[in-house]
Amino acid sequence: MEGVVEFIPRAIGWACLKLLTLGRYRGFRQEDLLVEGGLGLAVIAGLCVIGYLWWPH
Q1: Using an 8 Å Cβ cutoff, are 40 and 16 in contact?
Q2: Axis crossing angle, helix 2-20 with helix 33-54, rounded to the nearest 10
Q3: Per-residue pLDDT tens digits for 2-42
Q4: What is the distance between the alpha carbons of residues 6 and 1, in angstroms, rounded to a whole number?
Q5: How far is residue 28's CA from residue 36's CA, in Å, rounded to a whole number?
Q6: Dist CA 14 CA 43 (whole Å)
Q7: d(CA 33, CA 27)
Q8: What is the dihedral of CA 36, 43, 15, 21, to 10 degrees?
Q9: Rounded to an integer, what distance in angstroms lies between the CA atom of residue 44 and that of residue 23?
Q10: pLDDT attached to residue 22
Q11: Residue 44: what pLDDT?
């Protein structure tokens, strides 16, 4: 379970960086863990906020 919790935000962050740099970003090295994971968590949080605001009350 620990691997999934670490991998999913990192994979989302990596994908966002790949899209933002138009495919030039390589990443997934040990040094990139904090940047990719942090960005992934920020994207997940942003999607949660958008979903909450969009959901009818």
Answers
A1: yes
A2: 90
A3: 888 889 999 999 999 999 999 999 998 999 999 999 999 99
A4: 9
A5: 8
A6: 11
A7: 9
A8: -90
A9: 21
A10: 96
A11: 97
Other C-beta atoms within 10 Å of 37: how many? 20
DSSP the chain: -HHHHHHHHHHHHHHHHHHHTTT-----SGGGHHHHHHHHHHHHHHHHHHHHHHS--
The model carries a pTM of 0.87
Token representation of residue 35: 């940047």
Q: Which two tokens stand for residue 17?
A: 């960086």
- Rounded to an integer, what distance in angstroms lies between the CA atom of residue 9 and that of residue 47? 13
